[in-house]
UniProtKB/TrEMBL annotation:
It holds the Pfam family Trehalose_PPase. Removes the phosphate from trehalose 6-phosphate to produce free trehalose. Keywords: Hydrolase. One of its GO terms (biological process) is trehalose biosynthetic process. Belongs to the trehalose phosphatase family. Pathway: Glycan biosynthesis; trehalose biosynthesis. Signal peptide: none annotated. GO terms for molecular function: trehalose-phosphatase activity. It catalyses: alpha,alpha-trehalose 6-phosphate + H2O = alpha,alpha-trehalose + phosphate. Gene3D superfamilies: HAD superfamily/HAD-like (3.40.50.1000), Trehalose-6-phosphate phosphatase related protein, domain 2 (3.30.70.1020). This is Trehalose 6-phosphate phosphatase. NCBIfam families: HAD-SF-IIB, T6PP.
């Protein structure tokens, strides 16, 4: 986001982060039909009271925190254990080839049409409105690769993002830690919401960006302790890797033999039993560990929109592009807001709250280029918008 004065609202950070330690037990339950009260009022940070927090996630339901956790067996789908379900979810979130039949895919794209094919419709919706761009990183701006340290975006993609940011407030919303993703993106003029929105920083010409919000700051010691425990516990699983994303952790399955996925998931669960203040979610061949606070990418989007002064605005059009399960929180936030456009990056049909789809980062880049051209054509010449 450029040219914007951001006001940081009082979010009650300390109150959100200062959680009482659970009385010594953490249960892991597969999600049943229960959906938590996560969709609370904006800024209402708190603990998920013994219910799941987002689509298909594992949950760490700590006793004594506003609701008794459901017994795992009661919530598990019949005939499947929690571990087998989580392994299936990890596999499904990053299929090596799309298992859908052609007609199934066609039916899905009728419900979630290509954002490129529907560009004129999107442009019409943007008429007279201020577009605000939100983009996920991995799988959206950069292709998925086996080594998380090598997930570079192309110079062409960087140019497309830079150009979009000249015209519209622009933020990267990612599970990565800010430092890592800033290094990949290399555009200091953007806003960044790292660690699944738990670390929000503003544009800065300096190395040290302005912190706008860190709702999980007080979890840092426990995250670091869990990181060390996970490294220790998973070190004998060939290919397993634990990534420290500052306010959350990722255990990577991508380079692990699929036969070992269940035992790796069990190891992660075993470690997490000692950390009832943390919870597990699933991503693309990854398990993500994060503080059990009601904060996600959707809340980060709401925060940034509010900070930019668009909270009650009718003339704003937030556009969110993402590929992962965690991006669904942002799609849902826009849906609930009744404002904005969610674009899912996927080659396969998937249950989603996004309205439109793009197949891969190459199509994302085409969309961004098109958006930049459209804006330029509509800008009164020669006074074009600049950073
Ligand atoms: O919110 P995101 O920006 O999508 O971050 C989610 C995770 O992305 C990264 O992992 C994913 O991309 C890797 C590189 O392409 C890939 O190797 C891995 O299998 C994917 O899950 C990142 O490494 C994780 O820490 C993030 O949580």
């Amino acid at each position: 986001m450029t040219n914007q004065d951001v006001v940081v609202p009082d979010m009650g950070i300390a109150a959100a982060a200062a959680l009482p330690a659970a009385p010594g037990r953490a249960l892991f339950a597969c999600r049943g039909a229960a959906v938590s009260s996560l969709r609370g009022a904006y800024g209402g940070l708190g603990l998920p009271g013994g219910a799941a927090t987002d689509a298909g996630e594992f949950l760490a339901a700590a006793g004594g925190r506003g609701g008794a956790p459901a017994p795992a067996a009661a919530n598990a789908p019949p005939g499947r254990t929690c571990t087998s379900r989580v392994v299936e979810a990890i596999r499904a979130s990053s299929p090596t080839r799309c298992p859908a039949a052609v007609d199934e895919y066609d039916a899905w794209t009728r419900r979630h049409p290509s954002a490129l094919g529907s560009f004129d419709q999107i442009a019409a919706a943007a008429m007279g409105k201020r577009i605000v761009m939100f983009m996920d990183y991995d799988g959206t701006l950069s292709p998925i690769v086996t080594d998380p340290d090598m997930a570079f975006m192309t110079p062409e993609m960087r140019a497309a993002v830079r150009n979009v940011a000249k015209h519209f407030p622009t933020a990267i919303v990612t599970g990565r830690c800010i430092e890592k993703v800033c290094g990949f993106v290399g555009l200091p003029e953007l806003y960044y919401a790292g660690s699944h929105g738990m670390d929000i920083k503003g544009p800065s010409s300096k190395e040290d960006k302005t912190v706008l919000l860190q709702p999980a700051r007080e979890f840092l010691p426990v995250i670091n302790k869990a990181y060390r425990a996970l490294e220790e516990r998973t070190k004998d699983t060939p290919g397993a890797r634990v990534e420290n994303n500052k306010f959350c952790l990722s255990v990577h399955f991508r380079c692990v033999d699929e036969k070992s996925w269940s035992s790796l998931a069990d190891k992660v669960k075993a470690v997490l039993r000692d950390f009832p203040e943390l919870k597990l979610t699933e991503g693309r061949k990854v398990l993500e560990i994060r503080p059990s606070i009601m904060w996600d990418k959707g809340k980060a989007v709401e925060f940034l929109l509010k900070s930019l002064g668009f909270d009650d605005s009718t003339n704003v059009l937030p556009v969110y592009i993402g590929d992962d399960r965690t991006d669904e929180d942002a799609f849902k936030a826009l849906r609930e807001r009744g404002q904005g456009i969610g674009i899912l990056v996927s080659k396969c049909p998937r249950e989603t709250d996004a309205s439109y789809s793009l197949q891969d980062p190459t199509e994302v880049m085409e969309f961004l280029v098109r958006l930049g051209q459209w804006k330029l054509l509509r800008s009164p010449s020669p006074a074009r918008p600049r950073v």
